[in-house]
Amino acid sequence: VQLQASGGGLVQAGGSLRLSCAASGRTIRLYNMHWFRQASGKEREFVATIMWSGGSTDYTDSVKGRFTISRDNAKNMVYLQMNSLKPEDTALYYCAAGNRATPVGWGQGTQVTVSS
């Protein structure tokens, strides 16, 4: 599966962005889907997961209550709604598929920059 994230940009602290992840090559219907991010000079970190059924989600503690992951299997899309953004959310955001420990389909990512 090939994935392409989009929707990033420059936003002030407290603002919102909605990231999209478009899948191609095969359906994501049976994949768990994830968002990861990598800030400059830091390792890539897990942000959010949505199970293949769409019924269960998980988030890293720093984004709980602010970010929401969702999916539309019919459109082969995954989304990340990000509210109350903070400067520490600044990073390159990627979507990925499959096993969270060894996901696939990274793509190029989309840059999110939050100004203070």
Q: How does this structure look, described?
A:
The protein is an all-beta fold and 116 residues long. Helix content is 0%, strand content 49%. The protein has strands at 2-6, 9-12, 17-24, 33-38, 45-50, 57-59, 67-72, 77-82, 91-97, 110-115. The strands form two sheets. It has a six-stranded mixed beta sheet, with no helix packed on it. Strands 1-3-8-7 form a four-stranded antiparallel beta sheet, with no helix packed on it. Strand 7 (67-72) and strand 8 form a beta hairpin. It starts with a strand and ends with a strand.
Query: How many strand elements?
Result: 10
Q: Would you list the SSEs in sequence order as H and E? A: EEEEEEEEEE
Structural class: mainly beta
Note the total helix count.
0
Proportion of strand residues: over 45%
Spans where pLDDT lies below 50 across 5 or more residues: none
List keywords for this structure.
116 residues; mainly beta; 6-stranded mixed sheet
In short:
The protein is mostly beta strands. Helix content is 0%, strand content 49%. The protein is built from no helices and 10 strands.
How would you summarize the topology of this molecule?
Blueprint: E1 2-6, E2 9-12, E3 17-24, E4 33-38, E5 45-50, E6 57-59, E7 67-72, E8 77-82, E9 91-97, E10 110-115
Parallel strand pairs: 2-10
Antiparallel strand pairs: 1-3, 3-8, 4-5, 4-9, 5-6, 7-8, 9-10
